Amino acid sequence: MSELTALAAPPLPTAAEKLKFYGSWVVAAAVLLLLPNMFTSGGSLTTFSLIGISIIFSLSYNILLGQTGMLSFGHAVYYGLGGFLVIHAINIIGANKLPVPLPVVPLIGGLTGLLFAVLLGWVSTQRSGTAFAMISLGVAELIASSALILRTFFGGEAGVSANRTKLLKLFGWNFGPQIQIYYLVAAWTLIAVIAMYALTRTPLGRMCNAVRDNPERVQFVGYNPHVVRYVAFCFSGFFAGIAGALAAINFEIANSAYLGAQQSGTVLFATYIGGVGFFIGPIVGAIFVTLLSLGLSDLTQVWQLYFGLIFIAVVVFAPGGITGLLMMHRPLLKAGSLAKVLPSYLIALVPTAAMIAGLVISIETIVHYTVNPGDDSHIKAFGVSFDAASPYIWAMAAILLIGGYIVGRKTWSWVGHAWDSATGVAREKGIAA
Amino acid sequence: MLELIVISTLNGVLFGMLLFLMASGLTVIFSMLGVLNFAHASFYMLGAFFGFQISRWFGFWPALLIAPLLAGAIGAGVERYGLRRVHKNGHVAELLFTFGLAFVIEEVVQIVWGKGPVDFRIPPVLDFPAFTLFSTNYPAYKMFMLLVSIVIFLGLLLVLKKTRIGLIVQAALTHPHMVGHLGHNVGRIFMLVFGVGTALAAVAGVIAGPALVTQANMAGLLGPILFVVVVVGGLGSLPGAFVGSLLIGLVQTFAVSINGSLSGAFGPLSPDYASTWLADIWGVTVAQVAPIVPYVLLVLILIFRPMGLLGTRDT
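ok -> structure tokens follow
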């Protein structure tokens, strides 16, 4: 019997693997600790805090989408309710001088998220697939609309605010300055990321994957897929509540936008663009999307349109997201045939970039004529100035767009051929591609 | 009281028929392609805005014809060049594709027509009271809306029951693979169905645009209700979609017209509770909770009949 288990179980990790595994967490903690020393401005600290919150939220979303295969359109409900409860908790703690320091307050948000996931999850997770997606949307609309009716608790359109500095001081920190909030968010991010990673390694995490891949077989093994989905849903709600709590602490306000469809959409975008197939995917996505939404809004007026187009492009061309795209190259790197594809990428990059540039110029020109027709036609987008009224610019945009597409088609098929031959090499060397 | 009931029933049936114009396309698309088109309400919005723009250039009647054709062509293009590519990545990717599309369409509409409502007016020919019921003038345009949706409903019924293409569509509702095995060009049928479905949504948009508000958020407001309709009726069931549409239409219209609240029924709340959340629940009128009624209905249906009223298929 013990021989059989020895055969079936994977080999125990070697010392080098253990070092690599624990080392990466230590490095992550060190980076979080040192980041404020490298980027000292207040703006970058706020950005890092937002990224941390987004990482927790996206990872909690990936417990549903990536690990259990449930596409939710209403994940912001648990995030928002966590945020609202925390704002009220801070006000109550502050008013009654209760001995509760700020660092443990996010736990209240997490428990709120958990409570509502327990309440709403049983009905929501009865079915998976498209039906679950629609139910999550309906439940989200229900909560978001109710929030506007229960004005005393949710504060109507304006929301509820709180003062985070009125709580019990811990080691002389009052959590007024952004740097202290950054460390609070960073600590919670690290804890939540480790906890969620550990969750994927538990038998429950494995059953979630099984429910995602083949619910029928899960039933044959003797598990109830509904219960597995429900438990995963509850965990997801808990971590979403923590993210919402940190957001509420960061902004010192919670309003109805926290619960809304926009928030649910953003976390879906971040998770999917990062890649749902790998644990690290949502982290990459959260960083990418937060930076993108902060950066693009400075560069162009219609950044949300670009945002949507990027999302569609990822869905159509890279369903594995950014991490999926990068991980595809790992077998090639191992087989040493990466050099075969890189030149074709460089060649394909030129017409593709030209096509995108043409598209951007066209969009910005149209925006000039429809959104602000009376303004000066010399517009600036993405740091480049051009004259939107000039026919030369129109011609250039058309040439870039159409020419880029025609030339691009050719180079994309080259990329395909190079990819095939490179993976062929990897396969010959016995590395699964 | 009788007046309220009659007028609300008329309005409710009207709203229900409008919902069915959209829900029918959504249901047929879902049954055949297996993808719930998240952007379906966006095509309704496109229909309204195209209708507005074309009626400015050529008048309302050409708009009623051209706008749905245009939206349908865009829909067919989306299926041919978008969904079909994504199909190999699975249903989640397809749903996400339509989700992204809905997002982009809303942004484009905001860019082209602005965020505020546009001035889409009822054509002068139809701008008169059709009849006076009790003391209320019922506008002729609403009767026209009702007429158009009933005519399309009957037309759809005839096409589905009596024509060859209708038979194929019906067969594909329950046995999509068998239809393919029998040698029908499933790809072309899918494109056609998607185009027709989105065109129907656009018809609803053109006729609803002047009566309701034509604004860039109209898809976001109606979309979730549309999904409630198809889930309540039963995913993939066309009769279910019909029952669901009328049910939601009537329930919501009646809820809007009832002005009662708990405080009206049981007297005002004692002043001790005036600043608590109880006061919110006590003072809210039925009309104010009307927006959440469909979602409450959805949750109830899911608890007591998870496959929907007339649904049979478990997805």
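Residues 391-428 of chain A form the longest helix (38 residues).
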